[in-house]
Amino acid sequence: MKGAVGTQAVVLLLLVLHLHSFRVLSQSDGSAAPMEEKEKKALYSMIQNFVGRSWNGSGLYPDLCGWTPIQGISCDYFDNGLWYITTVSIGPVLENSLQCSPKATFSHFLFELSHLKSLSIFSCFSSPSAHQAITIPPKNWEKLSSSLETLELRSNKGLIGQIPPVFGKLVNLKSLVLTENSLSGEIPIELGNLVRLNRLTLSENQLSGEVPASLGSNLAELLIMDISRNSLTGFLNAFGGLTSLLKLDLSNNLLSGNLPEELGSLKNLTLLDLRNNNLSGGLPLSLQGMSSLQYMLLSSNPMGGRIEEFGWKTLQKLIYLDLSNMGFVGRIPESITELKSLRFIALDKNKLTGPVSTKLASLPCLSALYLNGNNLTGELGFSEAFYERMGRRFASWDNPNLCYRSAAGRKIGKGPEGVAECSVSLLKSENKMIRDERNN
Ligand SMILES: *[C@@H]1O[C@H](CO)[C@@H](O)[C@H](O)[C@H]1NC(C)=O
Ligand SMILES: *[C@@H]1O[C@H](CO)[C@@H](O)[C@H](O)[C@H]1NC(C)=O
Ligand SMILES: *[C@@H]1O[C@H](CO)[C@@H](O)[C@H](O)[C@H]1NC(C)=O
Ligand SMILES: *[C@@H]1O[C@H](CO)[C@@H](O)[C@H](O)[C@H]1NC(C)=O
């Protein structure tokens, strides 16, 4: 009985194999990887629109999913027994990659590739002046909505105009990367419909307006949001819906107003980069909730307020703390000396006052400490070995009331740059000042 079933199975398998090879060999065009003729033609025409008319796809690559593959194009086999194009990657990645001609354009043939999962166009539309400027087609993208997962248009300085709102119909997108182009206008609200997105990178364009609230509330699977180096204005909206977020980079824009309290609910965030904006209103205490944060980069914002009252202790993972040029007053918080992973601390160009704790030197990984351009006072008590170890990555100049002295009280070979050795009188007046402060 058992043997009979086995034999039946073998016979069935042979039959299937036979039928399959018969079908493959009987393809009208004789190719080993059968495709719909329409699909093939669409790909050839689409590529021609990018690389130039002289490219003869049917001549050079008759069996494009089989024996004559094209660099940057890949195919998958589907249940209906046919091969379909799933990846198109154009641009100078490898020596034999498809490269754009100066007359490159998008063509409607792109939208006939009904199984396309990944489209990448890199360094293709080179400069707005070299040829007619190109815009992203405003229509038809919905035809790719059931398949497209990755869309990447990178380093196309000749790509101008807006991000088409129809991108919001690409509901299967996991990665949308439109970086280093010349795109302008506002970010379409419709991008908030892309609920499967893991990565949204719109950096280095000329996008303006506010970050749509829909992005901050809907994209629960987003891991990376990078809209740095644009011209975004207005307030930062709430980001409370981005519960998975690991990296948020909105640096180098014109954002103003307060940091939203909800940022603190991003428990998995490791990088927060808001450098070079116009953010103000002090550091909200809620940021203490960002317990995974490793990179806090907030420099060059007119934030104001004090940092000593902020509970730094909860940010135990912090590696890189850049609070340079933010209008902070008050003292250097002693609690940052408990953040043992810190490697980089920049507190320069603020209005910080008071003494510099020698405990900073006991941070085991510290390799850069910038304190210059404040109004710190008293005696720098670090050891000679500390200054030697830090080299140029220690800066304390432009603090007129700061002086240094070696721990042993002897003159040290090379003190911190731009800081005078303490004179007795300065020390005395400093000690008196500290006494006065305590008595008050
Ligand atoms: C492309 O190549 C095919 C096959 O070699 C040839 O028949 C056809 O004429 C060529 N087309 C052009 C436009 O050169
Ligand atoms: C945060 O990260 C942890 C550990 O990597 C993971 O288990 C958790 O699901 C993440 N939280 C969210 C909301 O994605
Ligand atoms: C910066 O923010 C302040 C206060 O929020 C605002 O008055 C000012 O216009 C902003 N500046 C720019 C250049 O946006
Ligand atoms: C620096 O602090 C001292 C007192 O410690 C004060 O007298 C002086 O005005 C301050 N200088 C500036 C520029 O704030």
From TrEMBL:
<dbReference type="InterPro" id="IPR032675">
    <property type="entry name" value="LRR_dom_sf"/>
</dbReference>
<dbReference type="Pfam" id="PF23598">
    <property type="entry name" value="LRR_14"/>
</dbReference>
<keyword id="KW-0732">Signal</keyword>
<keyword id="KW-0808">Transferase</keyword>
<dbReference type="InterPro" id="IPR052941">
    <property type="entry name" value="StomDev_PlantInt_Reg"/>
</dbReference>
<dbReference type="GO" id="GO:0004674">
    <property type="term" value="F:protein serine/threonine kinase activity"/>
</dbReference>
<dbReference type="GO" id="GO:0005886">
    <property type="term" value="C:plasma membrane"/>
</dbReference>
<keyword id="KW-0433">Leucine-rich repeat</keyword>
<keyword id="KW-0677">Repeat</keyword>
<feature type="signal peptide">
    <location>
        <begin position="1"/>
        <end position="26"/>
    </location>
</feature>
<dbReference type="InterPro" id="IPR055414">
    <property type="entry name" value="LRR_R13L4/SHOC2-like"/>
</dbReference>
<protein>
    <submittedName>
        <fullName>Piriformospora indica-insensitive protein 2</fullName>
        <ecNumber>2.7.11.1</ecNumber>
    </submittedName>
</protein>
<keyword id="KW-1003">Cell membrane</keyword>
<keyword id="KW-0472">Membrane</keyword>
<dbReference type="GO" id="GO:0051707">
    <property type="term" value="P:response to other organism"/>
</dbReference>
<feature type="domain" description="Disease resistance R13L4/SHOC-2-like LRR">
    <location>
        <begin position="167"/>
        <end position="380"/>
    </location>
</feature>
